[in-house]
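request received
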Amino acid sequence: MKKINLTINNLTVSVNDGSTILDAAETLGIAIPTLCYVPGYEPNATCMFCVVHELTTDSLILACSMPAKEGMIIETDTARVYEARKDTLDLLLSEHVGDCEAPCQRTCPTNMNIPLMIRQIKEKKFDEVLITVKKNIALPAAMGRICPAPCEKACNRTSYDNPVAICLLKRFVADRDLAKEIPYRPEIFSKSGKKVAVVGAGPAGLSAAYYLSRYGHDCSLFDRNKKPGGQLQYGVPADKLPRPVLDAEIEQILTLGVEFMSEQILGKNFSLGELRKDHDAVVLALGTINTDVVIDPDLQYSPAGITVNRKTFETSIPGVFAGGNVISEGKMAIRSAAHGKFIAYSVNRYVSGLSLTGYPQRFNSMMGKLIEGEDKEFIKEAEVFDRVEPAGGLNAGYTVDEAVNESKRCFHCDCRKPESCKLRQYSEKYGADRRRFKIDRRKPFRKIVQHELVNFEPGKCIHCNICVEITKKAGEKLGFTFINRGFDVQMTVPFNESLNAGLRKAAKECVDSCPTAALSWRNGEEGLHRDTT
Amino acid sequence: MTIDKENIIAETDRIVQKTGTAESAVIPILHAIQKKYNYLPESALRRVCEITDITPASITGVSTFYTQFRHTPVGKHIIHVCVGTACHVKGAQLVYDAFFRELGITGNQDTDSNGLFTVQKVACLGCCTLAPVVQIDDVTYGHVKTNTVSTVLQDFLSGRTKKGEYRPSDKTSSGQVGEIRIGLGSCCVASGSNKVRQELEQCLIDTGIKTQVKRVGCVGMCHRTPLMEVITPDQEPVLYDKVQPKDVRRILLTHYRPKSLTKQLKNTAVGFLENILENNQPNEPIRQSFNTRDPHINSFLGTQVHIATEYCGEIDPLDIGEYRLRDGFRALVKCLNEYDPQEIIEFIRSSGLRGRGGAGFSTGEKWYIVHKSDDEKKYLICNGDEGDPGAFMDRMILESYPFRVIEGMIIAAKAVGAHEGFLYIRAEYPLAVERIKNAISQCEHNGLLGNNIQDSDFSLTLKVMEGAGAFVCGEETALISSIEGHRGIPRFRPPYPAQKGLWGHSTLVNNCETYATVPWILRNGAKEFSQMGTDKSKGTKVFSLAGKIARGGLIEVPMGITIREIVEEIGGGIEYGRQFKAVQIGGPSGGCIPAEMADIRVDYEDLTKAGAMMGSGGLLVMDENDCMVDIARYFLTFTCDQSCGKCTFCRIGTRYMLDILNKICAGKGTLTDLQKLEEIACKTKQRSLCGLGKTAPNPVLTTLRYFREEYEAHLKGICPAKRCKDLIKYSIDDSCIGCTICAQKCPVGAISIMPYQKHIIKQDVCIKCGTCKQVCPTDSVVIL
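response:
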């Protein structure tokens, strides 16, 4: 067979006549990202994502479809290629109707995976659910009592009746754990031998100490008061937050090996300089401070508080981090708790000698507020009854049955493929901007739940044609087809038949090959959740 | 209306028996079902899947792709309001709205409550010189205005205007003197030439005058239709324009004497009585007549060179004998007997002929690629899917010169070695389909198609495939998908159709104008052809000239002619003496060239350099009253609607551009919007998969380039041309005489009747339909 010689990223390769650029790159081990291409099928050439730069013609070409030609010189990773791929993603995202993360999770300062928590409650996976909660919130029992719950304000269920009682559910999970003889103890990374001083044992400090300990660092927690807890201990009324609950929860943090040093005042009992000398890093979680008092001449302030890099929480002194009310006045304890978590992430990188990046921000497609009628799409997967009130009153919290019932009200607005969705993966990698080509009125959200295992969300379809080809090849009697054209083109089962009828044979291949979550398993991919801690 | 299911199944079975059960039969089957039921009943579609190779996925996908197909029952009659470019600039949208008001259709409905009429938009009926045009079932009405909508409906319901069936013309027999030619192109038919012909035939019987009545194809002077030309041996030919049936008798009697004395007397008497009744001067010319030396005609026809449209207005489209007499099939016979394929290709290559469909690829080169392909099976396709709104060249060529197109195709087939060919023609052109089918069958009977053509060893069969309403099918790979029975989705190239086309075989795709040019080149020589034109663009090009022009029509001009010559000399300048502002050339793929640049030559490269493109040859002239932002929006609305939806850039990019243009036209645009518009236009142009997407931004980019100040004015809430509805208001000035006509005609009661007083338009009620301005006798309605 005739051979074609070409160059890709300065490497020469010889391939059979008829090979595509993608094939040729693959033989060199060069990965070119694709969305609408699946091995074993003819290229679809629909998404226009897999472009590469051909230098002899100075043009961008589609790697999946373009046959390799003698003498081609290809670059796959230049700035121009990146920009072109990003253009494609930006356009695809502009018509993408769906949220990667549910509004509740995005609104929660700690970014706790609330829909997952609720599904685990629904399935009565009470051990797993605490892991989900504690991954982001160190003091869930306390927060479950005092949090103003911004998550509930964002809850899409509000457009139907009342928001899901997220805060009560979280408290239910935490209380249930604390009531156990041996409460949950997270897995701890092997000891690093690094020492970190945390000054201030309020929500931010406790949270930082908790996650630093999980990373395997030795934490010393200093506080001016006798007991840890800060405002939670000395500010919040006891009827709102019973102290035995708080103490029990703090105890769970201290048992990880955190050394609590009570009645220690920075500037009086010890100086920042001394702390720095004895520790690999210092965390200042002092709460509201008087900015006239100089802690250290090198520490920069603004009228709001200590100045930090808002991404990394590092102060003007390397190795010194600050968060919570000491950097700016805030009313929500959960915000301070979130700072503690982010600081722990930065400190861990700092003491490990890594560059500071800030807590990883996931890419999120957001469809915004529900438009009229969309609650009807979501209610397909939820019970219709209104919010469950605890029979024993708010102080008593939910019983198991109540919690399980309430959990059934969740709309599950989050994506079923938050990790395996190629559109999200590449959007993250290429820094895609979903607002760049935003169209005034988005298409309505739809969710088709007729199949026993598969969900179909047309708004997430990128019209790649993969499932149409798969069902055709599999000999599905109905399969999938496109209807209409242009911007109104839609993937559907012929004759408006049900999804079940369309997917008799090829459901698995379709779901697995779908580059987005247009087709997904109803039960999601929960095992795959990436651990960012 | 309920149709019982068994009946549907039996009917579907009958249809499939005729069309066959192949996958590729899906579009013909859908056409046939819809013809029967006026829509596509689901039970019929399901039945098709049971008895053919067509899958549910295929029939669902195809029947929702093409706009001709309907899935819900419609009214008894369908009103198609043409929204082609020429109609658009002459207010088609207002006419469309007026039909809804007149029929009381509201909300998302498109059918009136009695189920009598369904109102739909149609991309282009190709009768651009009669704009705005409306077609009700088979009857076409031209020059429709918002205030004549009710008259049109009444006329239709009265049944006065009927679609004339096409009767073959009588052969010349002894005793006939001269001939009378009647134009029967679609424009002529739309403006009533069938009625004129019927009247003429009746008059000939009444008077006993013997002459030959001859239908001829398009004369090109569509602005003056219906046309009737009288040719007598001893006189100069006389051409009558805008002929009405009532004029026919007089025209006839001006040139001929009735045979018998009694008939002479009777005719005199009738003429006398008519004169009294109509209070006309007896000897006044009835219709404006002019002989072909008339200076207007001279300048309209003078600079034209007829190659594809050779013998325009002279030959009967379907008279194979006459075609032969006029050099028809001479080129073919030469090719069959004297030339081998390489020689034919060399002829075409050296003539410099380039594809007339838009892209301008060398025709000889394309033929050579197919010729040298070692594919055992090769196909030949004639692209007659002229979807550009504002273009009607293909329609005219197919309607008027069907034999010439076929001759060109046979020659091409021999050159490339294809034995099977298709003519893909828009379903919106029923007359073209009918004539081509008729011409094919005549060719078959005369041994010009089929096995061993003219006793040579070359064989070719031709089939007609009707489109179903998809502009993108003009793109060659989409066209091929459509013939194969799929959604009209373009494919990635390479491979090009010449390498791997229809059903995977090497396929030659040329536009019908290209084929129609071929016989002339072979008869007159490549040199003769290449002498015309510019360095790289040879020969002639057919344009449909429409818009705000005094003399619109179908013209064929040598390449290299300037736009200004076309507009001012052939077209007679702008109508009503208004200011020439721009030409839009190449339709939705082309661009707007401002009047200052009108000295640009008709040349593939020059036009592309200016941001426009030859396209298939729509040439729309615009005057000072045309808003360039609105024109850009108009074309984007079209391409957005016609995008197949396959590739990301075209599907979303065109939509995003349209979104911004809508905002700008509503006066809500910002400077950022303008930047984003330009950005996405460039990206869509560079990155779309097929020609539709790659050229869709051209109308936007050229208007931004040449008329940026108009965009900027819109950002400030001003539409300089006073076109954009959201930025204008109607008002009545002091010259109002209080005649109350506007108040009576206003469809929404925005003007109160105040006899002898200055009328006032209530701005909160006014829908800006323009009716008051049309009816005002003193021109007192002004747009602010």
